[in-house]
Design brief:
Shape: globular
CATH architecture of the largest domain: Up-down Bundle
Bound molecules: nicotinamide-adenine-dinucleotide
Number of strands: 8
Number of domains: 2
Distance between the termini: 40 Å
Strand content: 5-15%
CATH topology of the largest domain: Dehydroquinate synthase-like, alpha domain
Length: 384
């Protein structure tokens, strides 16, 4: 057994935990850049807590999934204002923007010096500015991951700025912040969270610590995602989903992902679509393709029994098999109203660009078995 496990410096989880943010922020800096989603009003209580604690603040809003240009703009803003602390408050878009700004604030040069795949992929050398990550969706787990996903409109792809130096100093997860999520965003982000506890569980880089985290995340998402979708103020279901999302972040940062995320990066660069909705549309078809490929080419592979276990954790039936798990996820995706990828403009003419880009992506390396271009094509056809 040999692995590394890295995460945020501190993780604080619980209803009402936002009340602690003033004291926490005052311990890290004097002037914060507060990176929010498109609604600054949702951050009113956060800003009041900073005022009480004597932490000066400026806001920077993120209205869309972030681009390299937006991260640069935020970095200039933070530098001009003399910020020594960055607080991300929102979905993965706000959190990733905050993490990228914090990294670029302290490291010289251009983002393309550091970006993977399309940039030089150089290592960051300086610790990012202290960062507090406060998620308001229950999806990405970005509060505890070491990367920030940025779109490059120039290269038509989403790629990561990645370094252990980007792990937030503090991840503060308050499930109450997710009560206001409407059903569609609950569904998309929640299915992203579910994907992020399933892919690392069957990943070639899984380890016993991430396994334990994934098992708990799969169980909680399995019992609570429908309820959070149907009844947004169900405190127990929201807490389960916030916890499952955290599990996903802990797991993906330390055990990699798989084909769903291998596709999601290039897809997000080519089409305007919410990240979680893309993952959701692909998940059951990727699970089915992986199970079929493993049975055909690696029938003794341990990932096959992992897929049985996923089914058992999701259904609560100790005898459930991988096929039942795939069917369960397929039903859930339908019930939660996830549209096919054709909704965002995907058709067969884009497959030839999408498939090689997915094969090159970093997430693909975690998939339990290498899928051929033909197998990837079949997944896309089913997800249309
Ligand atoms: P998002 O941050 O784009 O938010 C989706 C929508 O929900 C936005 O309109 C936002 O304003 C709204 N919203 C957020 N919180 C709300 C609330 N409490 N009430 C009502 N509305 C609210 O979506 P996301 O799925 O959280 O993040 C997606 C981004 O995260 C993508 O760019 C994706 O690539 C990235 N991502 C990053 C990681 C990582 O480890 N860094 C992992 C997975 C995904």
């Amino acid at each position: 057994m040999r692995f590394e496990f890295a995460t945020a410096g501190r993780i604080l989880f619980g209803e009402g935990m936002l009340a602690e943010v003033g004291t926490l922020a005052a311990g890290l800096g004097r002037r914060a850049l507060v990176v929010t989603g498109q609604s600054v009003e949702r951050a009113t209580s956060l800003l009041a807590r900073l005022d009480e604690a004597g932490v000066a603040h400026e806001t920077f809003t993120v209205a869309h999934e972030p681009t390299v240009g937006l991260a640069l703009e935020g970095t200039r803003r933070a530098r001009d204002l003399g910020c020594d602390l960055v607080i991300g408050f929102g979905g993965g878009s706000a959190l990733d923007t905050a993490k990228a700004i914090a990294a670029l604030l302290t490291n010289p040069g251009d983002p393309y010096d550091y970006l993977e795949i399309i940039g030089r992929g150089a290592a960051l050398t300086c610790p990012a500015a202290p960062t507090i990550a406060i998620p308001t969706t229950a999806g990405t787990g970005s509060e505890v991951t070491r990367n920030a996903v940025l779109a490059s409109p120039e290269y038509r792809v989403k790629v990561s700025l990645r370094s252990p130096l980007m792990l937030p100093a503090i991840a503060l997860i308050d499930p109450e912040l997710t009560y206001s999520l409407p059903p569609d965003i609950t569904a998309y982000t929640g299915l992203d969270a579910l994907t992020q506890v399933i892919e690392p569980f069957v990943s070639s880089a899984a380890n016993p610590l991430t396994d334990a985290i994934c098992r708990e995340g799969i169980r909680r998402a399995g019992r609570s995602l429908r309820r959070a979708f149907q009844q947004g103020d169900d405190a127990e279901a929201r807490a389960d989903m916030a916890f499952a999302a955290l599990c996903g972040g802990l797991a993906l940062a330390n055990a990699r992902l798989g084909v769903v995320h291998g596709f999601a990066g290039p897809f997000g660069g080519m089409f305007d679509a919410p990240h979680g909705a893309v993952c959701a549309a692909l998940l059951p078809h990727v699970m089915a393709a992986n199970v079929a490929a493993l049975r055909e080419r690696a029938p003794d592979h341990p990932a096959l029994s992992r897929y049985d276990e996923v089914a058992q954790l999701l259904t609560g039936d100790a005898e459930a098999t991988a096929d039942q798990g795939v069917a369960w996820v397929c039903d859930l995706v339908t019930e939660l109203g996830v549209p096919g990828l054709a909704t965002y403009g995907l058709d067969e003419t884009a497959f030839d660009a999408l498939i090689p880009a997915a094969q090159r992506s970093s997430s693909m390396k975690g998939n339990p078995i290498a899928l051929s271009d033909d197998e990837l094509r079949a997944i896309l056809e089913r997800a249309l």
